[in-house]
């Protein structure tokens, strides 16, 4: 899918962004016929509304785009994308009214409004194309849009076409595109090479569990990204009810988001030594499925009691994080659709993240605001460590109290990332429940753009 800016032509229409509070002042400076047309049309510059203004011959002369007021804008993002989706086919350029500090956000939103998932059904793409606004890095925004589209495509693809085999193929295709190296450890080799938890989670499925290891770059700080690649989650023997299983094709949303971010990093040529680790499994049910009460060894050497086979994501991430920590990277980040508790706490639009590093948190918060990719810090609350220690084993994969589920899951992962490791964990949702500007219902990246924006400060690039 090509999500790119248009080239200006003589037919390109100017688009004037009008703040609701500034409409009257704007009209004062217009020719009488324009002011009369706007007033007669009832245009109030409400957020998301537009008005085509004709010339003396009745042909489109320019477009007014309502930008509402500050209070309205605070309730959403990518406002011009909502207008773009309703404009007639053609090429547009932003001629006035858009504050420079919002130009990149709105331009990216316009690009993303052109995304559709049409693998299984023909769909109409947004026919309104935008000329890149002056002062924005158009090439960077196109790369970001393409990375986001990759994430969405992977999440939206159902598990019959996006099992561990297909997820591996997507990783290898991305690596080939950017000249990255890959290694894949599958099936029984996981046990031989000491990844017992990845093997235990995926061994019941028809497609073998595996660990995908992608490397790119030979200079700069070491950055390791770990993405949860559970291609479908039945819950295992603690089987999910059907109401909870319907969206489980998105349980590899962490892997999808990491791959979209990896594309951005490689395509932009960031000076890092990038490593991407994806444990790709399906949590299925068969005679070989792990059982409640089983105690698993792990790559870290810690033993884990399985009190709920539906808490499998932290198991596969644990082995992958332990591997990543062995190189002591300058920053290690995990992304996962991990807990329902995170959704209850923050809903589907905010990306909760955990870090012990105040510098990382400050950089992420500032970056998230700049690129309209909201994040919210939750604590690695050490007093809850006792909740993940069952007594019979070193760790419990599903504490029975039910309290602070997102925090206890994050604490579990921190045990495998290692003490002193610069580690950040994102517990994302990866799904847009209803359509919004630039975000159709379906798979969506969360946290990746904020992290990309923060990396130069975090890693000193």
Automatic annotation (TrEMBL):
Keyword Transmembrane in record: no
Pfam families documented for this protein: Peptidase_M17, Peptidase_M17_N_1
Swiss-Prot/TrEMBL keywords: Aminopeptidase, Hydrolase, Manganese, Protease
Superkingdom, taxonomy of origin: Bacteria
GO molecular-function term, one example from the UniProt record: aminopeptidase activity
PROSITE patterns: CYTOSOL_AP (PS00631)
Keyword GTP-binding part of the UniProt annotation: no
Domain Cytosol aminopeptidase: 308-315
Family: Belongs to the peptidase M17 family.
PANTHER family hit by this protein: LEUCINE AMINOPEPTIDASE-RELATED, PEPTIDASE B
Protein name as catalogued: Leucyl aminopeptidase family protein
């Amino acid at each position: 899918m090509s999500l790119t800016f248009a080239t200006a032509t003589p037919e390109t229409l100017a688009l004037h962004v009008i703040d609701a509070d500034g409409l009257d002042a704007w009209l004062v400076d217009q020719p009488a016929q324009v002011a009369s047309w706007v007033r007669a049309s009832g245009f109030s510059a409400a957020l998301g509304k537009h008005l085509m203004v004709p010339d003396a011959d009745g042909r489109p002369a320019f477009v007014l785009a309502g930008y509402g007021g500050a209070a309205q804008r605070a309730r959403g993002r990518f406002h011009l994308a909502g207008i773009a989706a309703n404009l007639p086919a053609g090429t547009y350029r932003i001629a006035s009214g858009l504050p420079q500090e919002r130009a990149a956000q709105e331009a990216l939103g316009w690009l993303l409004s052109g995304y559709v998932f049409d693998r299984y059904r023909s769909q109409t793409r947004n026919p309104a194309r935008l000329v890149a606004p002056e002062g924005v890095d158009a090439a960077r925004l196109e790369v970001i849009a393409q990375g986001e589209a990759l994430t969405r495509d992977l999440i939206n693809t159902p598990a019959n076409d996006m099992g561990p085999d297909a997820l591996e193929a997507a990783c290898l295709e991305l690596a080939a595109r950017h000249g990255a190296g890959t290694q894949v450890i599958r099936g029984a080799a996981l046990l031989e090479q000491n990844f017992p938890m990845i093997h235990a989670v995926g061994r019941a499925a028809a497609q073998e569990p595996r660990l995908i290891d992608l490397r790119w770059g030979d200079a700069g700080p070491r950055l390791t990204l770990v993405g949860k690649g559970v291609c479908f989650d039945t819950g295992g023997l603690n089987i999910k009810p059907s109401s909870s299983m319907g969206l489980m094709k998105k349980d590899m949303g962490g892997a999808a988001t990491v791959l979209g971010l990896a594309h951005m990093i490689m395509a932009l040529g960031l000076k890092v030594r990038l490593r991407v680790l994806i444990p790709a499994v399906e949590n299925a049910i068969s005679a070989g499925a792990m059982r409640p009460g089983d105690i698993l060894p792990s790559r870290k050497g810690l033993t884990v009691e399985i009190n709920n086979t539906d808490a499998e994501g932290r198991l596969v991430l644990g082995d992958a994080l332990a591997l990543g920590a062995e190189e002591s990277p300058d920053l290690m980040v995990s992304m996962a659709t991990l807990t329902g508790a995170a959704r209850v706490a923050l809903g589907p639009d905010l990306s909760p993240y955990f870090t012990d590093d105040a510098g990382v948190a400050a950089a992420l918060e500032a970056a998230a605001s700049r690129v309209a990719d909201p994040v919210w810090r939750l604590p690695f609350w050490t007093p809850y460590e006792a909740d993940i220690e069952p007594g019979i084993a070193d760790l419990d994969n599903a504490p029975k109290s039910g309290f602070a589920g997102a925090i206890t899951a994050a604490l579990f992962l921190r045990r495998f990332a290692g003490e002193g490791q610069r580690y950040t964990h994102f517990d994302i949702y990866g799904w847009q429940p209803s359509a919004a500007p630039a975000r159709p219902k379906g798979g969506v990246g969360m946290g990746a753009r904020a992290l990309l924006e923060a990396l130069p400060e975090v890693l000193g690039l």
